Fold this protein.
Amino acid sequence: MSVDNNGHQLDALNRSACSPSLWPLDPDMVYLNHGSFGSCPLAVLEYQRRLRERMESRPMQFLVRDLEELLDQARSSLARFVGADSEDLVFIPNATTGVNTVLRSLRWEIGTELLVTDHEYNACRNALEYAAGCSSAKVKVVSLPFPFEDERQLIEPLLAAVSNRTRLALLDHVSSQTGIVFPIQRLVGELEGRGVEVLVDGAHAPGMVPLDLRRLGVTYYTGNCHKWLCAPKGAAFLYVTRERQSSIRPLSISHGANSPRKDRSRFQLEFGWTGTHDPSAFLSVPEALQFMGGLLPGGWPEVIDRNHALALAARRVLCDKLGIQVPCPDASIGAMASVPIPDAPKSTRPSSPLYSDLLQDRLCRIDGIEVPVISWPAPPKRLLRVSAQLYNSLPQYERLAEALMEAERQPS
């Protein structure tokens, strides 16, 4: 029986780790893009439906009398999972909101330098540029290689870019484009030790890689719960270390700004109510944690390990069949993997703010495969990125490789 580099039996990866019917995914599609928009399990959606029914049956009871305690309970469950005190977490709709919240709250002197890498998600790069412009600060973009052979190639250029004017670094935990897991523990320690606050864009990290925010020692961290945790869409969190919470305000200023209450922090009061919205996605996070953690005998550690092993096996299939050199070490991969593919045709034009490649459309339309083709670092260069979730299996990536070879033989 063959075994991969992590000791997983490869024949176990030839089938999904649990029944795909637990998710509402179209059975006629091969869905390899959990990283962009993961599907929420049916059981969790049913839990959310019951919450919504409760809210709509007695709106005042739910939103005015019950909600605060329910949010506290949900935050406590999430805090245990990510290794934080619940008082230091607040719920937000998505990680992009978290990045904007921190950047729009901070002020810098003219000439202040803000670091970011060329791997950072475009939406968050835009937020950084906007915030810098409001304060006449300067964004310094650090180019990092991909492919690369050693994580020192990610660490050394970033540290070399720090100057006595650097005040903040916006860093990916897991890059959306390249799929690499940054050596975030080392980077946070080095940068915070130099007096540079770090805002980690952890959109993909919770549920993909082990996460312990206390141990990480970061000033600001935001992560999605609707990706690898499989909570309903619109569930994310923002973590702010205790001494910096007074500086961070929600994007929507509401009743908490002048609340006379003394039983909880201003941070919790302000973020606890930012206007009327549907909080059911937030409140479903504990159900998602319990459901996903119960799918495999080893709980969440086994979920993370299995998805990692499948992502590595999928990458090997693509590289072997397409003649691509493995672009980075196995240790730099979580549950997503990107590989370079031939340049895009010059005729390609953006058809959506989220993707712009005709090959992605072809794979969906002709082959029934949903997988992102990403322009990086800039057109015409591009990457193909695959995701691995419990409903995926190795034959799906073999089918993708065959479809890619056919597309190269007969472009449309």
Summary: The chain has two domains: 10-16+298-409, 44-290. The CA atoms of residues 177 and 276 lie 34 Å apart. The chain has a mean pLDDT of 95.
